[in-house]
Amino acid sequence: MVIICNNKLKIEVIYCNILRYYYLSKEVESLFKKRSKAFFTSIILATIYLIYIISYFYGILGQGDTAEQIGSGLATALVTPHIVVLAISVMFGWLAFGLSSSGFALTASILYTVAGVMFIPYIFFVIPSIILGFVGYANQKNINNKAKAK
Fold first, then answer.
1. N or C, fewer C-beta in 10 Å, the chain?
2. What's the alpha-carbon Rg for the chain, to the nearest Å?
3. Model confidence over 109-136: pLDDT tens digits?
4. Mean pLDDT of 95-108
5. Integer CA distances (angstroms), 118 to 7, 83, 85, 86, 121, in order
6. Residue 62, by phi and psi: left (phi above 0), alpha (psi -120 to 50) or beta?
7. Distance (Å, whole) CA 131 – CA 127
């Protein structure tokens, strides 16, 4: 069977699918060639947690009777500094990943720690991002130093 895949003539459909996977894996490999995988994992975890906490706390506002609204408003007011610092750290994290910057990675990791300390009951959600962030910072610094040496 002869088909056209990616504007090229191919013999088998299976070969076409394998070739697409090969090109995709090469693109992913080149994406992480100058970047830390540990730091990327840290950013992904922090981003997922940020989306969750925003949707949870700002989704409960306005629901229930007056007493529940007052309680949810107070809870949201207590958690808002944690959310703001976490959002800033996630922004620094994506900047660090995009620019391959160890300085931004260190800043993001420190801000993950500050966000965890600002609201201690939720520090367990931020601990993986803190650990992977500092490990990723060290890896990114080594990657940048090796690139400078070449």
1. C
2. 22
3. 999 999 999 999 999 999 999 999 999 9
4. 93
5. 55, 9, 9, 10, 9
6. left
7. 6
